[in-house]
Amino acid sequence: MAAARSLALALSLLLLSISTLVNTLSTDYYDQTCPKAESVITSVVKKAMSNDKTVPAALLRMHFHDCFIRGCDASVLLNSTSKNQAEKDGPPNISLHAFYVIDNAKKEVEAMCPGVVSCADILALAAKDAVALSGGPTWNVPKGRKDGRISKAIDTRQLPAPTFNISQLQQSFSQRGLSMDDLVALSGGHTLGFAHCSSFQNRIHNFNTQTNVDPSMQHSFAASLRSVCPIHNKVKNAGATLDSTSTTFDNAYYKLLLQGKSIFSSDQALLNIARTKALVSKFATSQEEFEEAFVKSMIKMSSITGGQEVRLNCRVVR
Asked: Considering the domain boundaries, does residue 10 fall inside one?
């Protein structure tokens, strides 16, 4: 019995080491099998950006939303079928866009190296390009992710919401092996992009029984948001940019946060405890320190793996 138990333990440890080995990412993963993959992906992202300045924010958000459900396995790219509603059709993902950029990159990479580069890696690389081509830092992305076969709209409930408080954010990040430092650094991704009224109306209308507007918001800033987003807003694409330089990757997000000019409750929440507030202040003062922390946290987040295959078409399983 003891021998059987020790054999079972040895087998489970072997399987664990194999799965760890399989999921080990490396920066030189495609050096032999598809050496030009990264430069091709970069040129596709650059071309898309020249036609649509919202592409970088879209790609960065897409990558976040992918990694936070089942790991970075490109499950966010899968289309719904008659039998399954996929992640991209879950409520938080309805506003995701620029999927065509990943399709175009995949098409070019497939023509060069068929069946080699995963959609998950293409998305991770495109997110890095989105940051770098917007004036932010660049980094060497570890590669070797595999594409997942499961994508369920209901799982998008697991995504951290813009209404989250600091304890909800902490729980969401820690469940994925990410720290409070990672939370503050990755929130800086809000330097790029746009928010629809629905994602921050809780702060500017009927905030609580005492006041209509979140008192932590700077008065004239709140008034400007209320004029763009009236209580019964009927304009589908109404909203606000996430910071004053929404197509440039910089530390303006943190500076505005300290001035009471943040958009989401989840942004404001970073000022509610000493540790995260201190990091916000540090990043507001030093773009260099922000970029260094952002790169470190991006590599950590994008290394949460979970797939099994390399798709030939990013929208459908093999």
From this structure: no
CB atoms within 10 A of CB 5: 9
The answer for residues whose C-beta is within 8 angstroms of residue 144's C-beta and 6 or more apart is: 23, 24, 25, 26, 29, 121
Helical (H) or strand (E) element with 166: helix 166-174
246 in the same domain as 201? yes
- Digit-coded pLDDT (tens) for 59-113: 999 999 999 999 999 999 999 999 999 999 999 999 999 999 999 999 999 999 9
Which amino acid type is present at position 316? Answer: V
CATH of the domain at 204: 1.10.420.10
Q: Which domain holds residue 251?
A: 166-301
Give the H or E element holding residue 274. Answer: helix 274-285
Q: What is the rounded distance in angstroms from the CA atom of residue 136 to the CA atom of residue 131? A: 5
Count the domains in the chain.
2
Tokens, residue 293: 């922390």
Residues annotated in the binding site for Ca(2+), as ranges? Answer: 66, 71, 73, 75, 87, 191, 243, 250
Q: How much is the pLDDT for 272? A: 97
Annotated binding site for heme b: 190
pLDDT at 24: 86
Instruction: List strand residue ranges (DSSP E) for 100-187, in order.
Output: none
Amino acid code (one letter) for 96:
L
Confirm if 193 and 241 have CB atoms less than 8 A apart: yes
Residues with catalytic roles: 65
Q: Is the dihedral of CA 182, 187, 188, 192 positive or negative?
A: positive
Using CA atoms, how far residue 177 sits from 14, 27, 64, 72, in Å, is: 23, 21, 14, 13
**How many residues would you count in the chain?**
318
- Whether the pTM exceeds 0.85: the reply is yes
Q: Which residue has the tokens 């650094």?
A: 185
Dihedral, CA of residue 158, residue 162, residue 163 and residue 167, to nearest 10: 60
Q: Is 26 exposed, middle or buried (0-12, 13-18, 19+ CB in 10 A)?
A: exposed
